[in-house]
Amino acid sequence: MIHNQRESVVKLLNKDVQNYINANLHTDLHSLLLKKSPFSEVSMQEIVQQIKGKQVAEKKFPFLLKEGIIFPPQLNLEQASSEKTALYKSEILKGQKFIDLTSGFGIDAYYLSKNFGDVTLVEQNTELLEVVEHNWGILGRKARFINQKLEDFLNENQETFDVIYLDPARRDQNKNKVFLLEDLSPDILEIHKKLLSVSNQVIIKLSPLIDLKYLISVLPSVFRLDIIALKNEVKEVVVFLSDASKKGIICNCVNLESDEPAFSFTFGEEENARSEYGEPEKFIYIPNNSILKAGVFNLISEKFGLKKLHPNTHLYTSSEKKDNFPGRIFEMEVVDSKSIKKKGQFNLISKNYPLKPEEIKKKYGLKDGGNDYLIFTQSKKGKIILKSV
Ligand SMILES: C[S@@+](CC[C@H](N)C(=O)[O-])C[C@H]1O[C@@H](n2cnc3c(N)ncnc32)[C@H](O)[C@@H]1O
């Protein structure tokens, strides 16, 4: 650790400073920033950074709510993975040598390297890596910490690894979010061949907004894709590269913190599958967002024996309930728009329907919430409204 950084960590870990931080965890940070720091050697900005860190940690990585842990600036907190998605990824990895080439705040690295004996973290940001090294000391975890640009590291490196992990920075110079591979740092398209010469398994975390067809077309070595949703919000697309020959790309869709089962398929299976179409029956199925992101619309119909309502409506139906569906299942009936009472309270869903939920709410004078559902959609016969029974 460079001298200044070590000094500033020591000052932040002073008991009085830590007590002040803990006493202000719920104070408005804007007003706190306007105050003068009660400590001559620690600025209010440094204090607020630690408070912000603890607030984020509470939701995203509670394992860091420990005495002695130091938090980096907000951008590094935002870029870090959540403990829950990192835990999912850690369960599918095992080996001897692990390297994270874009360590960042090290959340992914901490979890993903759990089943490895030899761990290396590479990060270009000196202060950030020092914070991680300090924290890993507190957490009792050993690693090699390399403060270098990963391109330079790869040029000098003579070693091979069982797993290489990367979570490229997804922001451009203007801090806007970007979703093309060539706009990421590092540029995966430029280094992927080099990565594959150093490891048989390269794992890259990408934005949920990345287009999967584009991804597969520009990275021919993809053999597996995991689409990770948490409580039905897609958080990560994780891509696995390998030089080994492959029989089609496997895609795993998961919705963490739900009872819904994971769904795995190959893109070839989806291409060969055909949906059966039909009008609504007793049960209506809404696939979760990891399934929708994967675009696995026909295989779902075939595998679960469900009829699809319309080519562009990703809703399915059956007369008998099919359990183990990766999404929500409702018992519903088709209703006439005239039967919808004003001021009725519903959870509104609009899928492949000209009006958005807000517009439907206004048009029918409805209130949000409650236990009942209304789905405005289209079957092959035209516009329909479904109501939960
Ligand atoms: C999205 S963050 C990683 C977050 C990390 N997975 C976590 O869970 O905390 C990306 C990191 O990659 C680093 N980075 C980007 N390009 C790099 C490069 N060419 N060499 C080394 N580090 C790089 C950035 O400094 C940033 O800290």
Automatic annotation (TrEMBL):
Keywords of the record: Methyltransferase, Transferase
All copies of domain THUMP-like, residue ranges: 336-381
GO terms for MF: methyltransferase activity
GO term, biological process aspect, one: methylation
Cited SUPFAM superfamilies: S-adenosyl-L-methionine-dependent methyltransferases
Signal peptide: none
Superkingdom classification of source: Bacteria
Ranges for domain PG-1098 ferredoxin-like: 283-326
Pfam families reported for this sequence: Cons_hypoth95, PG_1098_Fer, Thump_like
Name of the featured protein: Methyltransferase
Protein source organism: Chryseobacterium lactis
